[in-house]
Specification:
The complex is a heterodimer of chains A (192) and B (212).
Chain A: H1 2-22, H2 28-52, H3 59-73, H4 83-103, E1 115-119, H5 129-139, H6 143-153, H7 158-165, H8 169-191
Helix pairs in contact in A: 2-3, 2-4, 3-4, 4-7, 5-8, 6-8, 7-8
Chain B: H1 3-12, E1 17-21, H2 23-65, H3 70-91, H4 105-124, H5 126-143, H6 155-160, H7 165-209
Helix pairs in contact in B: 2-3, 3-5, 4-7, 5-7
Classes of the chains: A mainly alpha (192), B mainly alpha (212).
Chain lengths: 192, 212
């Protein structure tokens, strides 16, 4: 009886040890990087969030969710892509997923006090009228085209857009030609 | 309007709003938020497991009372169905792949679609993996004995057991009504919650794949 319980204890300990080997250690480096990543990417994340935010979803809510998901995913960053590509992927995936959740009435958020949004004092003129036209015209595009055009407006190359969307570079180029035409027609009609 | 002009308008838009972040405070809040989310999952797990254990314990007690009678087979089927029910629910929880938000958009959409299809399938087939096994086990318990007074079982079981045809019929109709409702509500959930989203994701993936 004693021998049996002794063996069971040892087998259990070895089993848990083997299980723990599969878990990734918490990366301290990743933790330190978090602040840097946010500082470098916060404006671009917010720009994209503003496009995907549709009532009652606020850009601030989306931004918070993206920041939270970046923090959660940081230990999984393996350097296979650039940090910018990684951030863009998370941002667009969160924005698209949140819109889908909204349709299911499942998007819930709580505001974090660690993030503060305020109107810039340096900017005398509120928002450019042309930006509003651009936003309206992007809203007329479908979901797939929206994700491609925001990356294009972020001045990314077709190669980078392909890596973020999961399409081929050629495919992105073909699509961009059509999207750009549609977008310019829409903006020109509004500015005329 | 030129391409560059459009990109400038886009970039200037972020100058309108300033974002300040207290990272330390944010991390503290994230950790608390994550703990809360995990606690919700832990509580739900505990609820499900304790319910199953109570049912299994009650049924095992009955099985012990009815030892080697036709009811025992019914009880064993019902216990097995309960265990399978809990296992199926737990193994179909939110896929870890849908949480991988750092993969390319198309891949993430495909993973979400796969998860949603599985959820929808699970709801639509609830009749086969949950309702039928539990129902058949239960019916075996109800219809296999007609002389409960001849069994050496506790007075509580004797009191609750439907011994004549009228009681057995009433019990069967009631169980049938509740399992029919269960099947209907699950099919409705699949139709209302998951199918529109699956269709929406199908559309987005098609838009991405198509050249036009």
């Amino acid at each position: 009886m004693h021998v049996a319980s002794y063996i069971i204890c040892h087998v259990t300990v070895i089993f848990w040890y083997l299980l723990s080997l599969n878990k990734k250690p918490y990366s301290i480096v990743a933790h330190i990087q978090f602040e840097q990543i946010l500082e470098n990417n916060k404006t671009k994340i917010f720009r994209i969030c503003r496009i995907y935010a549709v009532t009652p979803l606020q850009p601030e809510d989306l931004f918070q969710e993206v920041v939270y998901q970046i923090w959660k995913s940081l230990s999984n960053f393996q350097g296979n892509s650039s940090i910018d590509t990684w951030v863009y992927r998370i941002t667009l995936n969160v924005c698209m997923r949140s819109k889908l959740k909204l349709e299911r009435d499942a998007f819930k958020t709580t505001r974090f006090e660690g993030i503060e949004f305020k109107i810039s004092e340096n900017n005398a003129i509120p928002e450019e009228e042309r930006y509003l036209y651009l936003k309206q015209c992007i809203a007329e595009l479908n979901e797939a085209d929206t994700s491609i055009i925001v990356l294009y407006l972020e001045a990314l190359s077709y190669k980078e857009i392909a890596s973020i969307t999961g399409l081929t570079e050629n495919h992105v180029a073909v699509k961009m030609k059509r999207i750009r035409k549609k977008l310019f027609e829409c903006i020109n009609a509004k500015t005329r | 309007m030129e391409d560059q002009e459009l990109k400038n308008i886009w970039k200037r838009a972020s100058e309108y709003q300033e974002i300040t972040m207290d990272t330390q405070q944010l991390i503290r809040q994230f950790k608390t938020g994550m703990e809360q989310r995990e606690q919700i999952v832990r509580r739900r797990d505990l609820r499900e497991i304790s319910t199953a254990l109570v049912c299994i314990a009650g049924l095992s007690y009955m099985a012990f009372d009815f030892l080697w009678s036709p009811v025992t087979i019914g009880i064993l089927i019902t216990i097995g169905a309960f265990v399978n029910f809990i296992y199926t629910l737990r193994s179909n929880r939110k896929s870890k792949f849908t949480q991988r938000l750092f993969v390319p958009i198309k891949k993430q959409l495909e993973q979400q679609r796969l998860f949603m299809r599985n959820q929808s399938k699970l709801l639509c087939t609830v009749l086969y993996w949950a309702v039928l096994p539990i129902f058949s086990g239960y019916m075996m318990i109800v219809w296999s004995i007609w002389d409960i007074e001849n069994y050496d079982v506790s007075s509580l079981i004797k009191l609750l057991y439907p011994n004549d045809i009228r009681d057995k019929m009433i019990m069967t109709v009631m169980v049938l009504a509740s399992v029919s409702y269960m099947v209907w509500i699950n099919k409705k959930a699949a139709r209302v919650n998951w199918e529109p989203l699956i269709n929406k994701i199908d559309v987005i993936i098609n838009e991405m794949e198509n050249e036009r």
